[in-house]
Amino acid sequence: MQDHIVVTINGTEYLAEPGQNLLELINTTDEFVPQICYNESLGPVETCDTCMVEVNGEIIRACGTAITDSMYVNTVIETTKKAQKEALDRILENHELYCTVCDYNNGTCEIHNTVAEFGLEHQSRPFQSKHYQQDNSSSFYRYDPDQCILCGRCVEVCQDVQVNETLLIDWDREQPRVIWDNDVPIDQSSCVSCGQCVTVCPCNALMENSIIGEAGYMTDQSPGLLRSMIELTKKTEPGYGPLFAVSDTEASMREERIEKTKTVCTYCGVGCTFDVWTKDRKILKVEPQKDSPANGISSCIKGKFGWDYVNSEDRLTKPLIRKDDYFQEVEWDEALSYVAKRFNEIKAEHGADSLGFIASSKCTNEESFLMQKLSRQVIGTNNVDNCSRYCQSPATKGLFRTVGHGGDSGSINDIAEAEMVITIGSNTAESHPVLASRIKRSQKLFGQKLFVFDLRKHEMGQRADRFFQPNSGTDLVWLSAVTKYIIDQGLENRTFIDKWVNSFEEYKESLSKFTLEYAEELTGISKNELIEIAKEIASVDKLAICWAMGVTQHQLGSDTSTAISNLLLITGNYMRNGTGAYPLRGHNNVQGCSDFGSMPNFFPGYEKVADDEVRNRYEKAWNTEIPAEPGKDNHEMINAIHEGKLNSLFVIGEDTGIVDANINYVTAAFEKLDFFVVQDLFLTHTAQYADVILPAAPSLEKEGTFTNTERRIQRLYKALEPVGESKPDWIILQDLANEMGYRWNYKHPSEIMNEAASLAPLFAGVSYDLLEGYNSLQWPVERDGTDTPLLFKDGFPFKDRKAKLYPLDFQLQYSTNEEYDLHVNNGRMLEHFHEGNMTFKSPGIVREMPESFIEISTELAEEREIKEGAEVKLTSEAGEATGIIHITDRVRGKELYLPLNANGKSAVNYLTDNRVDKDTNTPAYKEIAVKMEVIKKKGKSPLPDHNHRRGNRQPQKGVQVERKWNRKDYTFPGNVVKQDG
Amino acid sequence: MAEAISKIKRIEVPESVKQEQDLAEVSRKVSENKEAILKGIDLLAALEESDALETITALIKHREDALENMVQELNKPQYSATLENLSDLFLFLGQLKVEELFYFTDKLNHGMKEARNSDAEETSYMGMIKALKDPDINRSITLLLSFLKGMGKEI
Which chain B residues touch A221 with a CB distance below 8 Å? Predict the structure, then answer.
């Protein structure tokens, strides 16, 4: 096999990889070939025909040619130029150039730039309207068929990148156009508003509503006037040259007032990065970049369109202090000195351990670092925790027990690369949409096997090659039974185990209980199915397992996470690309908040507070004494308040009073506090109990770093100034520490990171210089800046570099009973984030999903004789909630689903109780038995008519350009040239 | 004991205090940008003197109407030719060889000067024939003839 192939382009020789795309090769040279439909992130689409080149004497599409043999390419002779011009003319028949009054004229219009660079001066054939109306039905973007050049990028991205399978081009009608589902308005379709079609559109055919009439100096005109201006523009600007001179000048004037700032999304743990375009405080659009490490050009509805909350009227703009029955706005000085005084008084009276601190997984790494520093240095207590306690601590625990690092084994690319992906208790398509798309794409295009285990047949369940519904809380059992079967059959990866794994015999012994019979009885998955699962797992070379709250929020959450890791060790699915364990982090910085030390038992980088050597290091650096005893976690803090042992609580950016389990119990605790400080954007449910509320600034208004689910540290930059007198959390924490007599002097978050890096070996080489722009680092980061995209490449972080198999037992802890006969499952939905404090402030998102619902099965609806829209009351042992019924076939039998974004009377946490994971105190949110009482038998459906869930997907691969080529009126531009010539 | 409350009393900043703060901010900016502001005042004064200030103010206030009127007017068919001419004229200018034109215009100017100084009222037919013998007139005629010849080649 030869290594390289010689390709001669316009007389110069170049070396190509075998199979390399010809256009891709040409783009590495200085030669210019027009290419409008080609997009690096999408690959060849082959619709626009502009990249005509001559290869060995014949005119072909460069983008449709793979290099297999040495070839002679000519891009400049007259025939290719003519063919290219013919293709460009066809595009301009479909697209009117009125750049100066177009909102897309921002220097990045690919039609404009191609026509300009090609030097096309005159239009040979006039623009022709397609006679279709604009589609303005979506809340987020619009489609203008008259400007659409039918390049099909939007279809490619919808079908094969996002894999939502909504967009098509109907090539069969006389005048083709892009259609949604089976030709319905956008908002009646299955479109999930991920916005990727808009991102890849090369022109103004698909545009964000938020930028229309905003970007240009002359674009904000009434439609009639705009039309007249377009006509005028065309009359006065006869050739494209003068037109471009004017429009290019106008485009550069726009740069004067439009800022483009890189930021990191805050709506889940995937860590999408993008440029946010702002004009004053207006957000014009969000534009993911091909260099965005986690997401590339991808986004979801929330990241692309859900930023209205930063400009909400409800933002807190000044500190508030409780006075009798109201909050009084005060100046910062007064608020800070009051907090400092009360902290000091309580510490003096009850000791440092009577104060508690809860950091936010929505805040930056630097802010987590300062929160634990405030707690440990200024107050002197380890009572500091964060909301990963509510979700991810069990996964971290399971990984620490077995492989030694509490994070994803590899990157999202590794999940995409795996031969087989198993998801357990993860509603991936709604909770981590961009990551789910990578799996959906690999499954659709590259034959990746997808096995999904969940109670609810959500989108991933529907798409899975195999879908299993184990009984709630029994994943540990099937995992262990499958592992046992693999060992019993001798299908384990012996070489891997011998070389890299300890405690095999002991572990094997512990599995004796998990026979197929036992598993079938407990999980409801049949013996045969278990065998099939085991065989499939043992047969593949690369397996990645993703899991989420459906595993962790159980009383055996840590053990189940451990079982997953055990199975991966037995089958040798660690240490290589395309394999490993992937707990999918739910909040943007749930990983980083724990990484940077806001945990009662760990310093930054997961070094134990009980470890003298480590503690001394911090004591020396901070010139203080730190208790050796671990502090209280969130859950223990709430208990301690009830017991009178915790008197003061400081909560940042977490609506604990909604998102903690058993909120009746939690809010009762708030009422008992002597002093309660909440730092947030809004007067949240939790803040209503506070004595002092400090107004904080969201991600768009500050700098810092977040760490995503891949352990990837990424910088966010300030796009907007903080609203009113609100401040970035790190500044508030610093001001407070200084008010209490310390001299923190951080001028920029980079200085906080430098301190963290100097103290925590895990982040030794992290620095802002290495994180410029779209650069990122995946921890551990060595002192020289080398990061670790794939963990465990050279062994596991234990003394002998070997992983440990961890023996487990199982006792069924929970089930429904005769009185409380229904099981409530709960989780996210695509449109809203968490409890909805941010997303409910976006009118577009609220239009998509205005309220929450209680999802029940058709069987249960029939049994209780209720219809869609019925109103019911659910009662558990802990409390009650009411809500509106939505009947689907995603849930079965007596299982209910309650989205956790409901914050009124439907809040699921009125139902949850104090049961927790035995190892980490993570609430067992997923174990609620309730009874249901019907209040109203039917009513209006809580799901709007225009919600995407009512749509009708149209799966196909790509844009199906062959159908264009087969049209009677299509001639290949290369052939046209031949005819003419 | 702290029950949940949600009422907020805002700090009422008295109008006079707000004004004072604003004024302080403005005078600080004025002091920082003294030169620019003084020049700006000169500019305003000049505009005022020429009555232009009033016109510009009115135009800006009614910019939407103005733009609409302009665009609508310019889109009327009678301007179509003018607009097209405008751009054609622009292209025409680009094609002219100005240096060669100077050669002509120079001659034209000289001719006009002579013409102005001449007092002859009319020239007879024979006079014209005779005039061809005048080397100056002959050169002019030859020049015109070669011009006509060149133009004919392009027709």
Answer: 67
